[in-house]
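To make this tangible, we now present a fold written out as tokens:
***
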Amino acid sequence: MSGCLCLPCYKKAAPKTDSSADSNQNLKPWTVPFPPPPPPKGMDPVERLKSGFEKFKTDVYNKKPELFTPLKDGQAPTYMVFSCADSRCCPSVTLGLNPGEAFTVRNIASMIGPYDKYAVCALKVKVIVVIGHSRCGGVKALLSMQDGVPDTFHFVEDWVRIGYPAKKKVQTECAMLPFDDQCSVLERGVVNVSLENLKTYPFVKEGLANGTLKLVGGHYDFVNGKFETWETS
């Protein structure tokens, strides 16, 4: 699998005026009842999606034109968020982000490969955040892999090997810890590997050098309800 970061080009939103420069930040996050009420027992899965959208349209979309109307003309997100595809982790809900506020990429274990020859179209974001999380299946798979043993799920193993440097560090420095504790350390370690890989992207190098871009690591512990962040230069 290629380690490239290929982002969509898009119609840029109109430049912000002084009066609207912080308009998105001043908007209160749209809220979803958390945890959302369970669907009626026996509801068809497709109907569950349809009813979910209707509730969103009635309770959120129709009531917040000041949030959604500007998005018809384009997007200018502040954040780019890399998050795990795990269904238990939804960064927009967890961090209270508004639509249009974060360009979000989700994959297995929030991993990012190093830059290669493929083209990159970059959004003019100010902050790139890579978020790991507790009890990550991708991290567990990485730590469980044994050299010379055939892969069970070829796609998963090939992908999580991006975090191999962090795995070796955990095995060297945390060998006395129980497996679950090693996973907890590795959850943060693979985030740091991804942050270092991001630094190999030309537009990230440039942004870090001129001070227009920040790289932030994060970890969401949904077991204990905690969220931590750290910055890298």
Observations:
- Residues 199 and 205 are 6 Å apart (CA to CA).
